[in-house]
Design a protein that fits this description.
The chain is of the alpha+beta class. Helices cover about 40% and strands about 20% of the residues. The strands form 5 sheets. The protein has an 8-stranded mixed beta sheet with strand order 1-5-6-15-14-11-7-10. Strands 17-16-18-19-20 form a 5-stranded mixed beta sheet. A 3-stranded antiparallel beta sheet has the order 2-4-3. Strand 3 (about 80-85) and strand 4 (about 90) form a beta hairpin. Helix 4 (about 150-165) packs across helix 10 (about 275-295), helix 5 packs antiparallel against helix 10 (about 275-295) and helix 6 runs antiparallel to helix 7 (about 210-220). It is elongated and about 90 Å long. It is an enzyme of class 6 (ligase). GO terms for molecular function: ATP binding; histidine-tRNA ligase activity.
Length: about 500
């Protein structure tokens, strides 16, 4: 006989801690169904407006994504990257637009022009997670590549508004705010700010205006800002005169009651926009005319010069969808979700591959973010149905149970046979936790009599909510009926419908 060696701390099994990476989350049925419903509803709108579906890979070469950083050994700032076996850097896509630009450039000769496509799927960003902000999340995009008309921008905006309604937001629960990046190009030109990196840092600072207010933005336009967590963000270091001009510009159209046309007039009166700014006002006026022609009201779409969008590739009109619903965190405290989608015009993105200017415009729904926002607003769908559960009493009657569950499935009714080893009470609790609409019981007496007992769990839940006497409720057996075995499918269908 061989002695079993004693386990020592050095030889003991080291068990990993079960945990999710920060910014990544597990999703169960209810959350997944909520996101899939949003994707399905928004995709219906996109197809109705004449956009075709397209799917691109999760990985793209880093230079195709526009994130390559030549001064680092590992170009993973903002993206999640790895090196292929041929020494080329690849990264998980950070949005669905950059892959579209690559696809359009690669297939331009064979595509109908303009090319109108929609896409949905997960994207990944290597950035700090926060409330409703994840490192992995779903987007649902629609884009038009090959049209420089302001009507193309207006159509995308109007379609995004229709998509918000389809996703479940009523009038007054969301607004799309529109501006034009060329407005700030004019301000920078007038102030002598020519460094592209400095301009982009300043734009990203302005993009935080709704969240940080002028004090926070002012710090980011200057030397930088230390946030509550202790993280420091470097500033744009703009000249004081330029920062003061931006402050006056942002204040020039701060009245939310202004119509789109009135906002353009207010921005024009602020002055100092230069040729680029004047072109921006003309483009926005064209968008406004098209929106009016399509019947898009002033409350659903507003012009707001504080909207700039943080990504570098936008060249003209930019859009931001803002949630107006009241939302609360897990502890019931008020919280603000802000943006649930956005987009704009990116006329130079395809040209990165081809060298030829190709106008493009699009909008992206943050599917995961919108689902989280609806849940925080108490709008999550609590009526997700599980399958009908067939209860198991005896191994000897397994054929009867298998026949019943097969009959339900063949009739198109989701059903499962309980395959644990618990008793009836635990099985009923299981069915309730699964959100089952009904439980099917085939005891020995029912089988012998050619009958089946069906418990309507939805009816039982409804009755239980209003009954004070628990014993009386049990005696009444709410929602429970015994019918002929041949009426199984018909009875279950009646409960579900």
């Amino acid at each position: 006989m061989t002695d079993t060696p004693e386990t020592t701390p050095d030889t003991a099994l080291v068990r990993p801690e079960a945990r999710s990476p920060r910014g990544f989350g597990d999703k169960r049925g209810r959350d997944l169904i909520a996101e899939r419903r949003i994707v399905a509803k928004v995709s219906e709108v996109y197809e109705r407006w004449g956009f075709e579906p397209l799917e691109t890979p999760a990985f793209e070469y880093v230079d195709a994504l526009g994130k390559f950083l030549p001064d680092t050994d590992r170009p993973n700032e903002g993206v999640l990257a790895l090196q292929d076996d041929d020494d080329q850097w690849m990264a998980l896509r950070y949005d669905l637009t950059a892959p579209l630009a690559r696809f359009a450039a690669q297939n331009w000769e064979t595509l109908p022009k303009p090319f109108r496509r929609y896409a949905f799927g997960p994207v990944w960003r290597n950035e700090k997670p926060g409330p409703g902000r994840f490192r992995e999340f779903w987007q649902c995009d629609a884009d038009t590549v090959g049209s420089d008309r302001p009507e193309a921008d207006a159509e995308i905006i109007a379609m995004a508004s229709a998509g918000l309604r389809a996703a479940g937001l009523a009038e007054g629960q969301a607004v799309i705010r529109v501006s034009n990046r060329k407005l700030f190009d004019g301000l920078f030109d007038a102030g002598g700010v020519t460094d592209p990196a400095q301009r982009l840092t300043a734009l990203r600072a302005v993009d935080k205006f709704d969240r940080l207010g002028w004090e926070g933005v002012s710090a980011l336009l200057g030397e930088g800002r230390l946030d509550e967590s202790g993280d420091y963000t470097k500033g744009a270091k703009l000249p004081l005169g330029v920062a003061a001009t931006i402050e006056a510009f942002l204040a020039s159209a701060g009245d939310a009651a202004l119509s789109r046309a009135e906002t353009l007039e207010a921005v024009a009166r602020a002055g100092g926009l230069g040729a680029a700014g004047e072109a921006a006002l003309e483009e926005l006026a064209g968008i406004d005319a098209a929106l009016k022609a399509m019947g898009v009201d002033q409350a659903s779409v507003k012009f707001d010069p504080t909207i700039v969008r943080g990504l570098e590739y936008y060249t003209g009109a930019v859009f931001e969808a803002e949630l107006l619903l009241e939302t609360k965190d897990d502890k019931g405290r008020p919280m603000r979700f802000g943006s649930i989608g956005g987009g704009g015009r990116y006329d130079d993105l395809v040209a990165r591959f081809t060298g030829q200017s190709t106008p493009a415009t699009g909008f992206s729904f943050g599917v995961s973010r919108l689902a989280s926002a609806l849940r925080a607003a108490g709008r999550a769908d609590a009526s997700v149905r599980g399958p009908v559960v067939v209860i198991v009493f005896s191994q000897d009657d397994m054929q009867s149970y298998l026949d019943a569950v097969s009959e339900l499935r063949n009739a198109g009714i989701p059903a499962e046979l309980y395959l644990g080893r618990a008793g009836m009470k635990a099985q009923m609790k299981y069915a309730d936790r699964r959100g089952a609409p009904a439980a099917v019981m085939l005891g020995g007496d029912e089988i012998a009599a050619g009958q089946v007992t069906i418990k309507d769990l939805d009816a039982g839940r409804a009755l239980a909510a209003g009954v004070a006497d628990n014993e009386a409720w049990k005696a009444a057996r709410p929602g429970q009926v015994t019918v002929a075995r041949s009426d199984l499918v018909q009875t279950i269908r009646g409960i579900i419908e």
